[in-house]
Amino acid sequence: MSAPIRVVLVDDQALFRAGIRMVIDSQPDLTVVGEAGDGAEGVRVVRQTRPDVVLMDIRMPVMDGLAATAELLSDTTLASAPPRIVMLTTFDLDEAAARAIRQGASGFLLKDADPEFLLAAIRTVQSGSAVIAAAATRELFAQFSSPLRAAPPAFAELTEREREIFALAARGLSNAEIAQREFLSEATVKTHISRVLGKLGLRDRVQLVVFAFEHGLA
């Protein structure tokens, strides 16, 4: 078996953290390796434990989730294996969540999400095979979209097939859904997605969605 996905919880509500930890630790392929009650402590815990995924509350004392996320994503000591950061929010259309994703967070989750959805989201963000809550993510950026910018020259370097894959990924389709639609293997889709992300200098699929909205390509 592969090593379990390592998770850090950062939230100022101890009872909430205890509940989430119980759900995550009930799964053989997931494990909580650290907790923190504010963003500053969260940064320290992440640096110490080097998790795969961080569940980060947006609104916390001392340092909020936006500042903590920005600090972690700019930390060169984590650059070789940066964690995937998922923002936790109580609002469907939270502008702070949109800002966090623009600065590099890998998605967002509502704090009242079903346990099964939470577990699936952690696995999804770690595998990079889909966007968490794709419809909600698109709605978030439709609501809080920035003024449109011209697509950079790198976009013109995509092949016709890569543009087709880009368009489907920008709609939030998973590797499996794209493979079925385009009559390709999932491995081939994954290769195309990797090439698209590399050519556009994007961190992950949710950043692809952001790119599409900000350049009028969604």
How would you sum up this structure, described in words?
The structure is a single chain. This protein folds into 2 domains: 5-141, Response regulator (Rossmann fold); 147-215, Winged helix-like DNA-binding domain superfamily/Winged helix DNA-binding domain (Arc Repressor Mutant, subunit A, Orthogonal Bundle). Strand 3, helix 3 (65-73) and strand 4 (84-89) form a beta-alpha-beta unit. The chain has 11 helices and 5 strands; from the N terminus they run E-H-E-H-E-H-E-H-E-H-H-H-H-H-H-H. The N and C termini lie far apart (38 Å). The protein has 218 residues and is of the alpha/beta class. The mean pLDDT is 93. The radius of gyration is 17 Å and the shape is globular. A 5-stranded parallel β-sheet has the order 2-1-3-4-5, with helices on both faces. This is Transcriptional regulatory protein DegU. InterPro entries: CheY-like_superfamily, NreC/VraR/RcsB-like_REC, Sig_transdc_resp-reg_receiver, Tscrpt_reg_LuxR_C, WalR-like. Keywords: DNA-binding, Phosphoprotein, Transcription, Transcription regulation. Residues 6-126 form the Response regulatory domain. Residues 151-216 form the HTH luxR-type domain.
